[in-house]
């Protein structure tokens, strides 16, 4: 007689296996769903803002044109009509201010899109923003967040002010993904991954600068304190700086500009280290005299980031990375209005905020987080639909 009990493949209660798998899949997919929902809502808000101001929704705006141009032509064949310095003079080395990691990834991805680089860039930005969401959730768990806190951290990161660039041909989504997973690798002592992540981030953006010494210091401390995985830690220390140092060396050799990369950014954008003097003057002037919403809110975000960094407690590698990022944003001169976009790299501050939000009642948390996310999406939409200058 055939057995009458449940199929072993169905578990103890007959048809329970598929529902349990579906439940696990739903839990696994939650960060991706949150990121995709916030991105869709952000694009809708931006489109409405642009339409209300009779302005075209240019998804390639500002630096997006540079990154797509580099992906298409490289540095030497870049469109000469946009290669100028801060004085309006022709400056063919200007595109070298943009690191090659993202445009190189766009170029390679374009092979799967029939050479349509914009489609490749937007797909890459979306995919890496999802990867960043999972990295943020994992890092939030290391910082003490429960499941709700992890999902709130994903939502706040996806909807941060200027997160609109996560849906544009910009490298921020890739950078945040690499930084988040590199910090996770440090905390989990996955040294080879930490070194490779820092090297890739260093090839993607100068904002990866604080991440590299964190990996190196953490690796060196491991070498002195722990007797296991020592070779992997040595690899991390050696590999972490290669991406950024390699690019900076290449620019110095190829451009012929005195000071290399730093000379290029100073001539093209007036950018140099002044230990925060320009930022402080601009913030003081903005909060006391400006009648425009965008500069005032930009100043408010900068102030909030500095205060939060000083007051926040995190594992030392995460705090050191965050403090270095905020310091790097504040300490240089040049364009001020792009500082909020650069502060996207200081996403651990949002994780700490998420942990605090998650301790409230469920409905209160939902309303508070929704309000913060909508405010962040409005900020990005305002930057493209209303603000007339570079972001």
TrEMBL record:
InterPro entries per record: PIG-V/Gpi18
Subcellular location: Endoplasmic reticulum membrane
Keyword Transmembrane helix attributed: yes
Record keywords, A-Z: Endoplasmic reticulum, Glycosyltransferase, GPI-anchor biosynthesis, Membrane, Transferase, Transmembrane, Transmembrane helix
Membrane topology: Multi-pass membrane protein
Pathway: Glycolipid biosynthesis; glycosylphosphatidylinositol-anchor biosynthesis
Entry keyword Ribonucleoprotein: no
Top-rank lineage group of the source organism: Bacteria
First-listed, main subcellular location of the protein, grouped into a coarse class: endoplasmic reticulum
Stretches that traverse the bilayer: 27-49, 111-137, 149-171, 191-224, 231-250, 293-311, 318-336, 342-358, 365-387
Name of the protein this chain belongs to: Membrane protein
